[in-house]
Amino acid sequence: MKKFPEHFLWGAATSAPQSEGHGSLNGKSPSTWDKWYEINPEKFQKNQGPEHTSNMYENYIEDAKRMNDIHMNSFRTSIAWTRLLPDGKTINPEAVTFYRNYFHELHSNGVKPIINLFHFDMPWWLMEKGGWESRESVDAFAFYAETCFELFGDLVEYWTTFNEPMVHVECGYLYGYHYPAIHDLKKAVQVAFHTIMAHTMAVKAFKAGKYSGKIGIILNVSPCYPKSHSTEDLRAAELADLLNTKSFLDPAVLGIFPQKLIECLADNQLLPKVEVQDLHLIQMNPVDFIGMNYYQPRRVQAPATVNHPAVSPADFYEHYDWPDKKINPYRGWEIYPEALYDVAMMIKDQYNNIPWFVSENGMGVADEERFMDQTGMIQDDYRIEFMIEHLQQLHKGIEAGSNCFGYHTWTFVDCWSWLNGYNNRYGFYRLDLENDQRTLKKSGIWFKELIDRNGLL
Ligand code: BG6
Which GO terms describe its cellular component (predicted)? Predict the structure, then answer.
């Protein structure tokens, strides 16, 4: 049997905006998602907006029991900034009661809450002042973070500042998938820098406050594999890695930006506006741990034509289709578990072997009811196979010395996903959209047995 380390965290992740519901109730103010849906509902899959969640706001007590039923010992969700501080300054007492009860309930069921502060849900009041383009967002986020540490610090051991910060940068400012849906590389770099500063100021507040527990960040990591070993393709892979992964990973863990990234931005007149103390603050506030969300790798090649200065990421690298790739036929993403071993080794060798965990990994499946048996259970053997293959690679990395302390899947109960609605189901529990009912899938039973053994057969 392939055993995992003692006290390994086994669990699943979601976020407040994707699971809570009650978007305009109980004192919550709108986020960009609530507003965007109001303005452009047709952009959302089947017109399903952020109110179409599993309603954990009302179901958290039963859901915490369900986590216990499958022996999960940890669970990640986020706090909704707009629920806790509807105008950015005033604490909403209903939110405090809700989150305290929610986190208590998790503890009572043997489930450690891992609490994230920002999962793509920018408050609308702050968006109207420029959102992450504005330096004001840095102080606003630091105030929100400190408020969370003060109010919930006694209930939370693992805090994370951001989930996949690169995603709100690229989806909002390069590719048009998230509000404000603009295409502007220069702005994207500034937004990324403000996000790093917001993260840094939150870490600084956490350390200054001497809260118990640890603070980290969750990054999406897609190891970059070049099409060939030509100098051009290798350079494209290096740039893709610098821009997408190391841009956040290096400042968060090592306290500095990679020199090659700085040179690349300078060469393309893309350097962001930086205040005097910023780089020193980044250097002084490294994280205690990191979370890595891994779904699929990035296959890249040198771009055919290049603008200089660059106007989009396509001027640095292009995607290519690896002919040998194995595909998840129900979501279209590549399945390449070996990359998880590469991630484990990268953290060990390049990031001081900092403690880390797999904070998301999972298999999205469209029209999953086609796999429902006569008893109503989804027979998701494909998902079990997916997780086994990834855990084998993770185990290999741990055996080789990588300091991994947990594995979280995306997700616990099927959840609403931004513009994709319920197109891709990921949960251990199937969600019936008609009545919020949850039904355990076969993978949930498998996960429980895995946790009981703390090992892979
Ligand atoms: C992760 C995000 O990257 O992917 C989640 O943190 C998201 O918020 C998940 O829901 C799955 O994405 P999708 O598009 O398949 O639903």
Answer: cytosol
* pLDDT > 90: percent of the chain: 100
- Probe residue for ligand 1, chosen from 118, 360, 383 as the CB with the greatest number of ligand atoms within 8 Å: 360
Q: Rounded distance, CA 405 to CA 398, Å?
A: 9
ipTM: 0.98
Structural fold of domain 2-456: TIM Barrel (3.20.20)
| Whole-number Å distance between alpha carbons of 295 and 293 | 7
* pLDDT, tens only, 223-268: 999 999 999 999 999 999 999 999 999 999 999 999 999 999 999 9
CA distance 175 to 301: 19
Give the C-alpha separation, 121 to 220, whole Å: 17
User: Where are the domains positioned within the chain?
Assistant: 2-456
Q: Regarding beta strands 298-301 and 318-319, do their DSSP bridges make them parallel or antiparallel, or are they unpaired?
A: antiparallel
Task: Retrieve residue 367's tokens.
Answer: 């029209």
DSSP 220: E
User: If you take atom 12 of ligand 1, which residue's CA is the nearest one?
Assistant: 417
What is d(CA 373, CA 91) in angstroms, rounded to the nearest whole number?
A: 47
SS3 content of the chain, % helix, strand, coil (to 5): 45, 15, 40
Please give the model's pTM, rounded to 2 decimal places.
Answer: 0.98
Write out pLDDT tens, residues 102-130.
Answer: 999 999 999 999 999 999 999 999 999 99
Ligand 1 centre to CA of 411 (Å) is 9
Distance 417 CA to ligand 1 centre (A): 6
